[in-house]
Amino acid sequence: MKKLALVLAIALIAAFYVTPVIASDFSAGGTYRFEAVSKDPGEAEKSDYFDQRMRVAFNWKVNDNVSAQIRTDISEAAWGDGYRPEQGTDTLMVDRAWVKINQGPLTLTVGQQYGMFGLEGTLWGDQFQGIQAAVDLKPFTLTLVYVKESEGGTDGNVLTDDGANDDTDTYGVSVGYAGDAFSGGLSFATTVNGADDTDLSGLGLHFSIPVANFAINGEANTYFGDDGAGADYAGTQFWVALDGKFSDSWSGGVTAIWADDVDAGDTQVTNIVDDANFVMLDWAGALGYNNSPNPSCDIFDVSGNGKGVMGVVGDIKFAASDALTLYAKLGYAEPNESDNLDSKIYALANFDYAWMPAVTFSGGVGYIVPDYNSDANDDALLTLTVQLGVSF
Description:
By secondary structure, the protein is mainly β. It is built from two helices and 20 strands. It has an 18-stranded antiparallel beta barrel. It is globular.
């Protein structure tokens, strides 16, 4: 914690006391959010709580070729969890700390950063520590990624870098094409854990085709590997969506989802790493990617038993006024093969209201109904939330 505080202090001092040329290219900003959440998972315990997050980003444009960013999440926690440093309960996380160098067609980003392959990061998408290099060869783009997942294995022993203390690394390559009538790409990523001899790889193909005011988007992925204990990793899945605008006020779309089941004894894999990018059944707008009403965001394994999925999700967005936007989603999913879980129905609705400049008030309700063909609990899950967001 002391080291992180020192880094932030140095960054702030540099921003105000370096030469005027550098200072003029410094910017800072962020967001604050406060939430009230209520979750009623049927037979399980109901939970009601408040939480918050303060996010601040510091950006430097050193020159036309060099830039840098530090981004922090401060006190991202439920109220009542504590905040006093002397009790060891303060919360400060630096989630971005990178430098970017542009030289001709090459863009090199080194440090703690974010990256993803494909349209939604379903093959691989993560905040990571590593190196990302993109080469722009119009109309093609080549992207190479190296991620240091673990140095010294699970024990964190950087002095004995073998056996149980071996590293975990991820490597990836993606080739993308961008044209007026079609765009798409092919991606490959692999994670190797030397400590337990596991390896997991994935190959993905994505595309986007504009049609008038709409777009047809899709992605297919397949996974393979070994868990180091005699079982295989496996998985094949795809999604295709039609999205667009119906008018100045209405927009929406429909998405079909499918994933194959895997053989008994194998482990179904639905991503190399997916930092909640492809969250089909989450709220939209300001509530997206936060306190999801769907406790399992993995739509490709709806039962959690490696039985795959068949499903469809429809979504709609209505700009009721300059200040008020309404969102809704309705989804149905069931395992691709027979399973204890027959299906799930998802109904979500939420709104964003621009209360005043830089201030947004939001609210949402999520209702998920599982249908089991045994005596398993099939009570509905109800989630309610309201949120106050401030940008600065």
